[in-house]
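Our consortium's second objective concerns turning raw sequence data into structural hypotheses that experimental partners can test. To show how far this objective has progressed, the report includes one record in full. It was chosen at random from the queue rather than selected for favorable results. The single chain below, 535 residues long, was entered without modification.
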Amino acid sequence: MRLFILACLVGGVLWAQKPKLVVGIVVDQMRFDYLTRFEKRYSETGFKRLINEGFECKNHHFNYMPTYTGPGHASIFTGTTPNNHGIIANHWYDKFENKEVYCAGDVKVKALGTESDMEKMSPRRMLSTTFADQNRLHTQFKGKTIGVSIKDRGAILPAGHSANRAYWFRGKEEGNWVSSTYYGDKLPDWVVNFNKSEAVKKQLKPWNTLYPIETYTASGPDDTDFENGYKGKNKAIFPYDLKKLSKQNNGFDILKVSPYGNTLVTDFALKAIENEALGVDNYTDVLTVSYSSTDYIGHNFGVNSVEIEDAYLRLDLELSRLLKALDIKVGKGNYTVFLTADHGAVHVPAYLKKNKIAAGYFDEKLLTKKVASFLKSTFKVDGLVKKIMNQQVFLNYELIEEKKLSLNDVTNKLAHFIRQQKYMQYVFTRPQLELESMTSYTGKLIQNGFHQRLSGDVVYVLAPSVITYGPKGSTHGSPQSYDTHVPLLFYGKGIKTGKTYKKTLVTDITPTISALLGIEMPNAATGKVLDFVLE
């Protein structure tokens, strides 16, 4: 009896040391300097609360290329890089299926909450577990996992394979939160009721700056030549009548490209906490929240726009709202939060060039034509390349074998040809990435993003601030610091107060949370525990 009582007491102490809820927040396309550029305008209860009462890692980086949304979310929550978890891009060419595939696409499931075939999604293409999966295993599936994001991949990949639910937003003419049969046969009643409410429709409203526009001094002018804007409005300047503009901008999809998309995420996440009873028992639950609208706004308006500054000032208020709700529903001191980003973003190259900073634009379609012409003239064979995508070249193995060509000869000569093209920084071949221990910093990043089975045969890296994109708006995907350097904030139960300039990596987040929870790390984790963060 005494041993039983002692075991119960020890068990109770162990449970008491664990947070009731872990909230993993990802801000899509958040450069590190958004914390410092807009710092004076943030409230004390959003970003600053996490910084001042939590632990900030100021030199936090992604350690692979390509820095895209799918790989970013997968890497944060699996604790490893694409060479292990297999999410090598958002979309990629699958040499085995001989077609382009999507990181969360799954034709074997059906969509819930919509009739569209575009929402058939699951995490099946991700090859490793997340810390949420390990928590489910550790608690005999008593700890819940819920994923929420505007983007399907932002909800699905973080929540992992064993999630109870993942929800994402379908815009167009519907404006519904949806899921798939991977997670169950139907949507819960609370989601159906949310979709029937006016919560989405009421966000179709004017978007003006939160404060007087002349006070937005951390950004460039509102009227510039570097922003795309919305269809139906001649200039990308405030204010924007989203309801009026929605007709020419795919209906409710316009909300994704506005701060109100983030408002919807908070609204829905709070409903999930309440209706899924997250953080109410002794089994740690996991909520993953990805704020996607900042990415859409960054792509559309650029990183130096008034729109992006306003979006972050408004996101700060959303974080404040989420934290206050967690204080009430879960209890301050009962939950742990981390906040990071899936990648950064580059300044608009046209803006940089105007200010005498080296930058440029690269035409991948033109490269495809040049490569085809070079290979045909060199080897007298047409069709040696199946696809050029995500700065990777996929060779036609069957044709190379049929024509009795040397694969190494084709690969090396092709790599040499690509190196001669304008704006090239590095070119790597499959043999280099498979066999050599990379000594260069960039080479190691490429190697970490290279999956031996799924990736191509030649990988190239463009010079800094050179992108394959339109002349307006920002993008990402490179191994350069503007894409790899992002915020990392820890807050809440089990977390020290402080900061560090030590370099931390995206792969370190999940091992740290796993250590906090006392669970096994994900099955392909390669990162380290940031012990200086933990109490």
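The partners drew two points from this record. DSSP finds 20 helices and 20 strands in the chain. Residues 306-331 form the longest helix (26 residues). Both points have been shared with the crystallography group to help prioritize constructs.
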